[in-house]
Amino acid sequence: MSNKCLLLCEIDIWLGCKQGNVGLIFTKGDLKEVREEISKYKVGAPARVGLVAPVDVVVPPGNTGLDPSQTAFFQVLNIPTKINKGTVEIVTPVELINKGDKVGSSEAALLAKLGIRPFSYGLVVSSVYDNGSVFSPEVLDLTEDDLIGKFAAGVSMVASLSLAVSFPTLAAAPHMFVNAYKNVLAVAVTSEYSYPQAEIVKEYLKDPSKFAVAAAPVVAAKSGGGATAAKVEEKKDEPEEESDDDFVCSLFD
């Protein structure tokens, strides 16, 4: 009985999405792949009078195959044409209908004569039902990187809130430990109490020149350690050459 109640509750969830001309697709496969497969099946449709254009309609240039008597029809729609080999040819591409505009009788007649079916109809996924939840199909576009980024942002917000209200949470624990260690270190520096890690800090505070000594090797490595080493080697080589010359001269002496 309980299983039937749960099943009826789940059915009520997706029955609320079943409004209008809606079909149901049952699948055990990957939902994103199923949606991509569904979107491939589209049928071209002609432009009917009074229909709101879902996309921009552009008439391409080229030979229309219509006889020269149809030139006036193109002039009404401000479409530049020329006569080529006894037929009407469109010179430049023309944006005939803008997206959101209603299709007029002249536009519909021209597209019908040219054999252009500018619109297409197909199935569109309106909602997805999975494991008792109904969600928008845009969720299927999320990648693993998007999910990781959203999760990291959520953890950061939890940590910030925990630190602000001084409430311990797993997300804020590392920051709390660091802040606590800073407090312990501050007490050790300002008092006689000490421990090995605090001794290093106290030595630096007593003799600030140690900061410069510690930073010197790093700066040298970044700014020109190779050139300095080369100069040192050259200086070392020069005395050796001088000593050889002195030795040769002493032989002749």
UniProtKB/TrEMBL annotation:
<keyword id="KW-0689">Ribosomal protein</keyword>
<feature type="region of interest" description="Disordered">
    <location>
        <begin position="224"/>
        <end position="253"/>
    </location>
</feature>
<dbReference type="GO" id="GO:0002181">
    <property type="term" value="P:cytoplasmic translation"/>
</dbReference>
<comment type="subunit">
    <text>P0 forms a pentameric complex by interaction with dimers of P1 and P2.</text>
</comment>
<dbReference type="GO" id="GO:0000027">
    <property type="term" value="P:ribosomal large subunit assembly"/>
</dbReference>
<dbReference type="Pfam" id="PF00428">
    <property type="entry name" value="Ribosomal_60s"/>
</dbReference>
<dbReference type="GO" id="GO:0003735">
    <property type="term" value="F:structural constituent of ribosome"/>
</dbReference>
<keyword id="KW-0687">Ribonucleoprotein</keyword>
<dbReference type="GO" id="GO:0070180">
    <property type="term" value="F:large ribosomal subunit rRNA binding"/>
</dbReference>
<dbReference type="GO" id="GO:0022625">
    <property type="term" value="C:cytosolic large ribosomal subunit"/>
</dbReference>
<dbReference type="InterPro" id="IPR043141">
    <property type="entry name" value="Ribosomal_uL10-like_sf"/>
</dbReference>
<feature type="domain" description="Large ribosomal subunit protein uL10-like insertion">
    <location>
        <begin position="47"/>
        <end position="116"/>
    </location>
</feature>
<dbReference type="Pfam" id="PF17777">
    <property type="entry name" value="RL10P_insert"/>
</dbReference>
<dbReference type="InterPro" id="IPR050323">
    <property type="entry name" value="Ribosomal_protein_uL10"/>
</dbReference>
<protein>
    <submittedName>
        <fullName>Ribosomal_60s domain-containing protein</fullName>
    </submittedName>
</protein>
<dbReference type="InterPro" id="IPR040637">
    <property type="entry name" value="Ribosomal_uL10-like_insert"/>
</dbReference>
<dbReference type="InterPro" id="IPR043164">
    <property type="entry name" value="Ribosomal_uL10-like_insert_sf"/>
</dbReference>
<comment type="similarity">
    <text>Belongs to the universal ribosomal protein uL10 family.</text>
</comment>
<comment type="function">
    <text>Ribosomal protein P0 is the functional equivalent of E.coli protein L10.</text>
</comment>
